[in-house]
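Q: Structure for this?
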Amino acid sequence: MKELILILISAALVNNFVLVRFLGLCPFFGVSKKIETAIGMGMAVIFVMVLASIVTWGIWNFVLVPGPSNILQQLFLPEGQSLDLTYLKTVAYILVIASLVQLTEMFLMKNNPSLYQALGVFLPLITTNCAVLGVALINTQDKNYSLAPTLVHAVGAGLGFTLALVLMAGIREKLEDHNVPKALDGFPIAFITAGLMAIAFLGFSGMITD
Amino acid sequence: MSSAANEFTKGIVRENPVFALLLGLCPTLAVTTSLKNGVGMGLAGGAVLICSNIVISLLRKVIPPKIRIPIFIVVIASFVTIIDLLMEAQVPDLHKSLGLFIPLIVVNCIILGRAEAYAYKEGILNSALDGMGMTVGFTWALALIGGIREILGTGNLWGMPWNVALGSIPVLGNILGPIATTFSDILGAIGIQPAILMILPPGAFILMGVLMGWFQHRKLKMEAGL
């Protein structure tokens, strides 16, 4: 239990996906103009991250990694031979994430139109959000988590992303009313703001050593 | 300027993927802690971009429009896997320091963006030239950011002290080297230390903001002058 809480805090704050790991910067700068859309995007990312993490965990453990749990190896290879497909991870994961996003979109459109209204516009953007592929790769190839830590790590990563996005949106809403020098108006000032936020997040480093 | 040359040069400054189109931000900021990493990432991403541009341009007449995006992604992901394995075998140190960001080339918006906006419509030669131009643009942008961060953050350039690095450039180094050495001696005498912040994450954001502000300033000045 303690380990799971540590993983959650580490993913959300200490190794914040946006401000420390630099994953998911495109939506971070693209959809951070209003708090409302930022929250919508954050929810959609958490949702897809958790789903993608579960599915990629299954693929990694039962299809790609060699060993007795590998289904393809059990079905097609004679006893004693092993099948190592880990080099196919990039292709497999990106296809899974893309089709998962598509499926989620279709499912929501049919069964929960109100949620679809809220998340719909953000879902297609998530396919090319490197934070989702990033969390899947970290879970499987880097950390080799079992299922429970995988889930917690995905939730933490999504929460951290949402936190950074909403904070950024709040600051940018305020910035609208202020007189920014013309040369810095728009994206440059947003980057400098993000830099200052990243300094604040540096304060969390060293809190958990993993 | 002939049109072929134009296809090549437009990616370098006018439609620079990083500074003008604001694409591919994640690797741009994440791996540019040193000049070497910046150049390595630029070339790795560029190799995938050129290959995928050529293949997608070759296949553009057989790819049905409705399922083009998944097909682009599969083509790109295959090349990323090839580059990933190639780098792991040939340049293991660089592969280790770029880490997660090599498989993440798949979701780099520059590559999918060029496939969708350019290679799917144009001929093979133009697509290859477009890919090469974008590669040059992407690589110099990453090299600039990586170089500045490495000098300010560690006082090194390409893994050696920056005055030695400048001195080892052929021809120009004979002039630049002594100047840089004098300058770094003066800095050392005053007691100026490298700012570690620059190689930490905040340095990347702030440097990128300042550089973009500078480009925007120049653009405003040019428009005012016209």
